[in-house]
Amino acid sequence: MDPPVEPLVASADPATAPSHTPLHGRYTSLVPLQPSHAQAIFKHLGREENAWRWTYLFNEPFLEFEQCEDTFKEWSVSKDPLYFTILSGPASDPSSEPVGVMAYLSIVPAHRRIEIGCIIFSEQLKQTRAATEAQYLLMKNAFEGLGNYRLEWKANHLNKPSLAAAERLGYTYEGTFRKHMIAKGRRRDTAWFSITDDEWPVIKGGLEAWLSEENFDGDELDNTFFCATSSFLVFPGLPIHASRDLVHWKHVSNAFSRADQLPGLAFLPKATSGIYAPTLRFHEGKFYLLCTLVNQQLPRTNDSRWDNFILTSTNPYSSDSWSDPVHFSFPGFDPSPFWDDDGKTYVSGAHTAAYYPGIMHAPLDLENGEIGDIIMPWDGTGGRSPEAPHIWKRDGWYYLLLAEGGTRENHMVTMARSKSLEGPYDPAPVNPLLTSANDTSSYFQAVGHADLFQDADRNWWSVALAVRAGGTYGQDPGAYFGNLPMGRETVLTPVTWEEGEFPVFTPVTGDVSGWPLPTEAIPEKGEGQLSDADDVITFPPGSSLPIHFIHWRLPKARNYAVSPPDHWNTLALKSSVLNLTAFDADFALGRGQTFVGRRMAHSLFKFRVDVDWAKSLTKEEMEVGVSIIQDQAQHFDLGIVMLRPEGVEDLRPHLRFRGISETPYRATEHPPNEVYLLPDGWAGRKIALQIEAVNSTHFAFSAGLAGPRQDSDVRVFGHCKGTELVPYYSGSIVGVYTTSNGKHGEQAFETYISNWQYTGIRQLRSQKDVDDADSSRV
Question: Where is this region: Disordered (predicted)?
Answer without folding.
Answer: 1-20
